[in-house]
């Protein structure tokens, strides 16, 4: 199948405006005749469902949680980007566009990224109107802070809980439409297949997670907004229920899966503390505005810290290696996530790690300097130009608490260490997935009528996502892109009429789902689902993780293939199908993760370059920085499903053409 990205002609700054002006419309009186399914109710899904409900369409929204408010979007901490230039530091739509392309290591689609930058300012206005309590400065204006990969302050935030506040805004809009009857909400339902009729997406098969009943739901268009696939690694910052199933099911029915090897490793997470751990905790990137990252410059000091014989506060300044400031003076601690993560790994690989765990991996995030600086400023504003050290500490800690208090509280509850007194321990962990279902400029997959939004698609971040851009993309897709592009598709559906669910296509899809469930339930295995998920996670982290090489990736493909066979031969799923059965839920999700993991390794093996979060050890310069191959790999790798053995998937390439940005070596020094 040929890939047609449907990128409009014209200047980059006019593409979206001109495209919108030429899209087909559905008149208000015709919208009640049309049904739309939205799978997922995070920021992308909730905003899309609310928007289409407001427009007058009949919307069915599905989430596997007990409430849309439980979507993983609530976990986002640091902020949301927008090119409003409130700080008068030179920001613009073009600057946000450029930073995003550069941050993604020139592996994102140019037109989509510019559209994202264009609509970013509208998102803030929308959210303020919904009552989102963004932080404000002393004059009452919206405040901003910096994030990695930029030299401007464009990130709007609500303390350390921006995702939660934004989701509450979208949830309020969604709840209003539910109350009006325009949206029908299906909580505790999981999509297990998409239904195609005459090649078009016409509905889904969903499982009621309370009763176990399989349900058929029809629509004229289906929107997948089910998030990313980071839990393929088992340990990640994702909510434990986050999965790839909705995306993978549409992939198996004909939607290409793009750039699966592009995974973001977030540099600022609490390190792994034990083999029985099931979840990692993110500490917001916003902390890098105020914290300085370092390790002991002497290996013997690092060894003493790991042994409990030395405290970090006892290490003199001259014996500390602020390695990001040393290596990247222009950006310092605010380099992009992939750069910061690799730098931390390099220090730990050299023996400078500070955490006493199985791997000795961990670095410090230290707020002592910021506490002193802000304490002095606060004292000056009070008229005290010669404050005591105690007063500086007191006022400085109050300032830090006002910015990051809930994050510091969370850290202390988890680690039993006070980050105001002792530097935080952090280390990179799997966080976000830039890959996802391939979509064109209209966010439609290669299945007509199946649209994909937010983290579930691949379109905006290239090989690395800049911090505070996930919330931006989710809301941009749901509020400001899909209402135009889906309506354009639906303009040809007003005479279609109600889609029946008693057709052979729905029956066949339901039977296929039932067979896969019965296969797992009736399997006479001896191992738990988590046993296989952990084994997959270890393969992925060790061989398809922060650093990859040809030998490891080749082994991973073989090992995951064997793991798939072992899973179906020896997994044990207790309980029955027609009841609440969380082990069955996990088994269905892990089956998809195993296939995806193999495709990720295959994709990483064929991409013989280093770019963004994809770091091939064979392709690095003398200083350990990424070496891209723009001549051979400036393309989107869009994979076509070809059976459960993902090593046999078929590769299609969408060439990336940069007309308005000059491709260059990515330099943050």
Description:
The chain is an alpha+beta fold and 669 residues long. It is built from 17 helices and 19 strands. The strands form 5 sheets. It has a 5-stranded parallel beta sheet, sandwiched between helices. Strand 7 and strand 8 (214-218) form a beta hairpin.
What portion of residues belong to β-strands? 5-15%
Mean pLDDT: 97
Helix content: 25-40%
**Low-confidence segments, ≥5 residues, pLDDT <50?**
none
Helix- and strand-based class?
alpha+beta
Main sheet overview: 5 strands, parallel
Main β-sheet, spatial strand arrangement: 5-2-1-9-17
Radius of gyration: 25 Å
Counting DSSP H or I runs of 4 or more residues, the number of helices is 17
Based on DSSP secondary structure assignment, what is the total number of beta strands? 19
Cα distance, first to last residue? 42 Å
Shape from CA axes? globular
Task: Describe what is shown at a glance.
This protein has helices at residues 15-22, 43-55, 93-103, 110-129, 162-180, 245-252, 299-306, 323-327, 337-349, 368-381, 389-415, 470-490, 504-521, 529-543, 550-570, 582-606, 630-633; strands spanning 35-39, 58-62, 80-81, 155-156, 183-186, 189-197, 200-208, 214-218, 221-224, 257-258, 263-269, 292-296, 320-321, 363-366, 424-433, 436-437, 450-452, 635-640, 650-655.
